[in-house]
Amino acid sequence: MRRSRVFLLLILIVFLGIALVFYASRTVLAPAPTAVPTPSFVKVFIARQNIPYGAPITEELLDTAELPPDRVLATYFTEAEKDLLIGKIARYPIEQGVFLTEGMIGSETPAPTGPAYTASIPPGMNAISIPITRLAAVSYGVSDNTHVNVIGCVLFKDVDSEFQSQLPNRIPPLQEQETVLSLSGPDSKGRIEPEPAFGNAKFFYAVPQEPQRPRATCQMFLQNIVVLKVGDFNQVNAADQAQAPTQQPPAQQQQQQQQQQAQQPTSPGVVTLIVTPQDAVSITWMLYNNFRFTLALRNSADASRVAVEAATLQYILSQYNFPVPAKLPFAIEPRVDQLNIPEPPPATGR
Where does the record place the SAF domain (predicted)? Predict the structure, then answer.
């Protein structure tokens, strides 16, 4: 009896020993988990607000943004290079949120080589003017340095692909002489377009009641464009403005002021936009092909771009659920044959 107890005790001790060894191998002797490295970011400087041309760089104009090391360009200014940035001069206008690079900053303001307003054109961009009206310029709410979207509208007509003339073609009368068809009449240019459905019968040509109606389409083809100038540029040099005015008699001064007021334009007829060189070429082509432009004012802090569908008659009818009216036995009075754009009231001075 005593031997059996001793034997059971030995078995229990061996079992506990095995359990302790297994536990120690899973906890104490297990390798420590490898720490996952946290990605490190580099702080680089960006423009906190719009920095004009020639403005000194101060801490109030700067902000930082964190980027992965592999995305930090060699021309960026990091937080450790702050001393190389403070006190320098902006070589050209810098918009809010733009990463500051070495090419944007200089130790001194570069000497201007042309009019002062050319310094507001960023490198690689062009300025081009387009005609505007009061309605096309948001009631003249567009001013210098505002951001706009540009909408272009144009008319299309069907033309003959060979003659490049407006359809339908003008066909002179045809005469049947034996088996040969000849042309008669003053018109000698054109081509014969036989219709097999007529067989040997005489040819007929349906003449339209009116010329072909053009089809209009409008599209917002430029977004977030900066306005460089509204109206004509001032051609007076800064040196001439800095000169002290000469003493003149009161009557002569009053006459000169009246002449200057009479010369001031009441409303601008053009607006100058900052665009890419390719857009400048496209706008030039549009100007010489009778495109009409309209400006849509937008928030200067909004840099988003929206995919816009072109507006056509089919799009307007389907998108906004415009029905084609049915023919009724009654109509409105007086008769309306043409819809005209309402003329806005004349601008009143404040």
Answer: 42-106
pTM over 0.85: no
Q: Which fold has domain 42-111?
A: Type Iii Antifreeze Protein Isoform Hplc 12 (3.90.1210)
116: left (phi over 0), alpha (psi -120 to 50) or beta: alpha
Coil, strand or helix: which one is 247? coil
Q: In the Cβ-directed half-sphere of 2, how many Cα atoms lie within 13 Å?
A: 0
CA distance 47 to 76: 12
Please write the tens of the pLDDT for every residue from 60-106.
899 999 989 888 888 899 988 888 888 888 887 888 888 999 888 88
More confident residue, 185 or 239: 185
Rounded distance between C-alpha atoms, residue 47 and residue 292, angstroms: 36
Output the average pLDDT for the chain: 79
- Residue 53 and residue 47: Cα distance in Å, rounded? 13
**pLDDT higher at 130 or 190:** 130
Q: What is the residue type of 65?
A: A
pLDDT at 243: 45
Rounded distance, CA 345 to CA 156, Å? 32
Among 172, 261, 272, 268, CA closest to 225? 272
Q: How many CA atoms lie within 13 A of 71 on its CB side?
A: 11
Indicate where the chain has its CATH 3.90.1210.10 domain(s): 42-111
